[in-house]
Amino acid sequence: MSMGNNYELYKVFYWAAKTGSLTQAAKALYLTQPSVSHAIKQLEESFGVSLFYRNSKGVELTQEGMVLYSYIEQSQILITLAEEKMAALKNLDSGELRIGGSDSLFKHYVLPYLEQFHERHPGVKLHLNHGTTPEVITFLKEGRIDLGVVRMPIVDPQLQVTESFQLQDCFVAGSRYAELKNEVLTLDALLQYPIILFSRNSRARMTITEVFHNYGYSIKPEIEVGSVDLLIEFARRGLGISYVTREFVSKELEEGSLFEVSLDIPLPPSHVGLLTMRNMPLSSAAHAFIGLVK
Amino acid sequence: MSMGNNYELYKVFYWAAKTGSLTQAAKALYLTQPSVSHAIKQLEESFGVSLFYRNSKGVELTQEGMVLYSYIEQSQILITLAEEKMAALKNLDSGELRIGGSDSLFKHYVLPYLEQFHERHPGVKLHLNHGTTPEVITFLKEGRIDLGVVRMPIVDPQLQVTESFQLQDCFVAGSRYAELKNEVLTLDALLQYPIILFSRNSRARMTITEVFHNYGYSIKPEIEVGSVDLLIEFARRGLGISYVTREFVSKELEEGSLFEVSLDIPLPPSHVGLLTMRNMPLSSAAHAFIGLVK
DNA sequence: TGTTACCCATAGACATGGTCTATATCTCCT
DNA sequence: AGGAGATATAGACCATGTCTATGGGTAACA
After folding, report:
1. Chain B: nearest CA to A274, how far in angstroms?
2. Chain A: nearest CA to B246, how far in angstroms?
3. How far does the CA of B135 sit from the C1' of D16, in Å?
4. Is the same domain home to B128 and B43?
5. Residue B198 domain boundaries
6. pLDDT per residue as tens digits for the range A83-141
7. In chain B, what residues touch A75 (CB-CB under 8 Å)?
8. Do B32 and B60 fall within a single domain?
9. For residue B1, is it within any domain?
């Protein structure tokens, strides 16, 4: 059964042995010499052996004391390392940040924040796990990521949602359809053109489908793709009109390789949110990252 | 500042992490659950990070908690091993006993006690360092042995002397001098025979020299030897009359290969004493051995 | 949808025991 | 002989670790 010493006594013993002096140990520990003397005595009495020889110069380990020290020294060093490591984690000189989300959000939305974060805390390792929104939620619940970056809305009582950014989806076309540049199309008119949409299970796809449905139309894509890059590329090559997040094609809109097709109805904005587990403590790194984004 | 956590908290953390439950940790440590809860909270606050996720089944380490645990686990295991080792030292299931003395005392006097001690405490390693009395005293003061076994008297304020046994030195001869068997010799008569003595620096030699001197004689050996075995062997072969400790030749006296030469004056007994350092704590093993001898 | 039975968190009271000051004792050194 | 510096001891105090009592949350089950 437990010999039940207060482990604090080992700290005192360690310093007394290390410095060879109760007085020095006391200084190192910000205690008084009698306190140290008392602590050592407690240890000796609990073990029933003497740990130190006392002489006029200080103290010296006995055989038994050396045996004890051989164990305790390592133990104390480990604790010191642990405390240093924890301080490093807190200061974000160390640790890791694990984010889940879609590739397109990483590329167009998360990346600038990540750069900033990495510059500020180069010791923190970054892990990006890409997946669909349900997958990201699963990752979160399994504890494999600290936070997720996904499109809103998300309704899940276990999750804490921080809406952080608004994106505007729109239809864009390339020079093949230049005649539409200054027009304002009705939905009916738009549907006369080949439409390129993201794959069926994406949130953007569901959103636009619902918009058309609300106005009594049904939108059926000519082409279906699985990445934002393809959505852009196909539109540039004139294969159709792509439904895409405006912020993700800002470069193409600027340089004129794509233009936005105006509609006579407003398209709903979409929101990007940061997902974390509700009622679960955040790692320092995740906390700092969220603070950065907000 | 001081990250100065009470190391006792790490013990609590260790058990909480190990059992995955504050309640279980409390039972293991003979504490109540609120105490453990409080201890963990202290650690978390001191580090500024969360160490556990709390759920309805118990607790689970966070990333930061796992990092801390990776250090603390080893540390705690070492402390446990240290406590077990110290208990073993105390119980004499372990440790060592270092004795200094002369070969003859080891062989004829210490050995039976050592056998008994070893039988009772087989885990204790035995170290025998042989040397002359001054060497033994030096060993003691240098801390190379726990106790010395030497002839009395010893006067040294640093040493603690425990007289433990009385030996009687005497003159013995072999069959070559059978005519002396039933005689009682005067010192003068004895000196007509060749005498064999131990080497000049031995205590026995000094003692007998002084005895003869007190009676107005001077004893000069024919042969001088460096071991008790040779003293005995030479006497048996009739090379002279040996001055030897009676207890060391009890076998030869019994079997008749040697007989004691009676003198008309009493020879002073010599005393064997156990030497330890005064004002220095004894190891458990040394303490037990001295108790055995007394 | 109660009920039960586990968890952990919190609040507040209490007493243990760790720490302090003051002093004694010892040894070494000058 | 005296001073410097080490550890040991005694006794007082109060910080803090521990307890009891209680609250809230979740999972399992009827």
Report:
1. 20
2. 37
3. 54
4. no
5. 95-294
6. 988 888 887 888 889 999 887 788 888 888 999 999 999 888 888 888 888 888 888 88
7. 74-76, 78-79, 82
8. yes
9. no
